[in-house]
Amino acid sequence: MTITLKAQQRDGTGKGVARKLRQAGRVPAVLYGRELETMHLSLDEREAENLFHSISTENTIVDLKVKGVGEPFQTLVREIQSHPFKSNLIHVDFLRIQAGVAVDVEVPLHLIGDPIGVKNSGGVLEQVLHELPVKCIPSKIPELIEVDVSGLDINDSLHIYDLEFEEGITITIDEGRTICAVAIPKVVEEAVIEEDELLEGEIPDEEALRSEDAATGVEALPEDSDGDGD
């Protein structure tokens, strides 16, 4: 997926310059990459925020059109800094990419289907991994990776090695990592545990009862040797 964003070159760096830009409704940014001298830029704050909220910034190619420069730069967003309280943009880093040169990106994992363990047994689908780190050339960057979970029953799970990928895409983390699993509902688990505990404690231990009586000061009644109850 490729989108376009406009930028302008800015003069100077530092907190003072950045503060003035933000007051003018612009966001400081920087563009760097192979065979490229670092460029200090600024973005329209509203345009940038609307765009970043509508895409997956980790794996979306951004054609950055810098005013006064002929061809747009193909880039990936490498870092977005936001205000901790106001949530507005503070700074954006762009990495210039080149056709045919592999880059590291994180691709969203999208679960599809209804697991049989959820439909038939009331299980709970738990997603452990939400993004998958991969390395590939820009033209092969997936927009997302769909994971079919419809065949999962209770206690079943899917791992990275269960997926199939287009040639040229390299997974950069352990392929044994779990993506998702169908678990037994917590209420059922607790009920099973309580039932097991009851079964284990159904037959009182005679020695334990004697110890308990001794601790509470209750004396055991003597056995009636003649059986007449007198």
Please, could you describe this protein's structure?
The protein has 230 residues and is of the alpha+beta class. The protein folds into 2 domains: 2-98, Ribosomal Protein L25, Chain P; 104-187, RNA Polymerase Alpha Subunit, Chain A, domain 2 (Beta Complex), CATH 2.170.120.20. It is 21% helix and 37% strand. It has a 6-stranded mixed β-barrel with strand order 1-3-2-6-5-4. It has a 4-stranded mixed β-sheet with strand order 10-7-9-12, with no helix packed on it.
Summarize the model shown:
With 230 residues, this protein is of the alpha+beta class. The chain is 21% helix and 37% strand.
CATH architecture tag of the largest domain: Beta Barrel
User: Unreliable stretches, pLDDT < 50, 5 or more residues?
Assistant: none
Average predicted local confidence, pLDDT: 84
The helix content is 10-25%
The CATH topology assignment of the largest domain is Ribosomal Protein L25, Chain P
Strand and helix layout:
Layout: E1 2-9, H1 15-23, E2 26-33, E3 36-44, H2 45-54, E4 61-66, E5 73-82, E6 89-96, E7 103-112, H3 116-119, E8 124-127, E9 131-136, E10 145-148, E11 157-159, E12 170-171, E13 178-183, H4 186-200, H5 206-216
What attributes does this structure have?
Ribosomal Protein L25, Chain P, four-stranded mixed beta sheet, 230 residues, alpha+beta, 5 helices, single chain
